[in-house]
Amino acid sequence: MMIMEKQRREIGRIEKQLSQLLQLKISPNNKDEELLSDEEYLEEKRKLQKEKGILEETLSDTQQNKLNWVEHCEEFFDFTSNMQEKWLNGSQEDRKLYKMSTSVTPYLLPWVSGS
After folding, report:
1. Cβ atoms 88, 111 nearer than 8 A
2. In a domain, 109, yes or no
3. Among 9, 13, 21, residue whose Cα is nearest residue 45
4. How far apart are the C-alpha atoms of 54 and 60, rounded to whole Å?
5. Residue 24 Rama label (left phi>0; alpha psi -120 to 50; beta)
6. Contact (Cβ atoms closer than 8 angstroms) between residue 30 and residue 71
7. What values do phi and psi take at 46, rounded to 5?
8. Looking at the domain assignment, is residue 35 inside a domain?
9. Phi, psi of 21 (to 5 degrees)
10. What letter does residue 36 receive in the DSSP assignment?
11. How many CB atoms lie within 10 A of CB 20?
12. Containing domain of residue 91, as a range?
């Protein structure tokens, strides 16, 4: 979660810089482009927008990876939550499936030793 917070803060920082850049451009003190020319403004704006786009894409990837990780955990817990019941009361095929998919040994799960 810290990574995503840092990425969001960085995006916020860039948004603030974009806002400040615009304020500088439209400032009465920049009347004759003394502070910032059109070219300088557009160049800096493009640079910041590019950086923001990269960060937003990275944040999106991070969020997707987090969701994938949670889904994998849920699948694992669903699979293991019924394991003992399937082993003790399931068919021979169920036992084969569980044994093959988990490489279960009697040392790890004592209730499997009755195979």
Report:
1. yes
2. no
3. 21
4. 10
5. alpha
6. no
7. -60, -45
8. yes
9. -65, -45
10. -
11. 10
12. 2-102
Q: What is the pLDDT of residues 50-97, one digit of tens each?
A: 999 999 999 999 888 887 887 877 877 777 777 777 778 878 887 777
* Cα–Cα dist 9/47, whole Å: 18
Residue with tokens 């939550």, as numbered in its chain: 81
Residue bearing the bigger pLDDT, 17 or 97 = 17
Which amino acid, 92? Q
Residue where the block lists tokens 């806002």: 19
DSSP string, 40-88: HHHHHHHHHHHHHHHHHHHHHHHHHHHHHHHHHHHHHHHHHHTHHHHHH
E strand or H helix that includes residue 12: helix 2-26
As for how many domains the chain has, the answer is 1
110 within domain boundaries: no
Q: Report yes or no on whether pTM surpasses 0.70.
A: no
Instruction: Tell whether 79 is covered by a domain.
Output: yes
Structure-token pair, residue 9? 């803060």
Residue with tokens 């439209």: 26
Residue type, 60: S
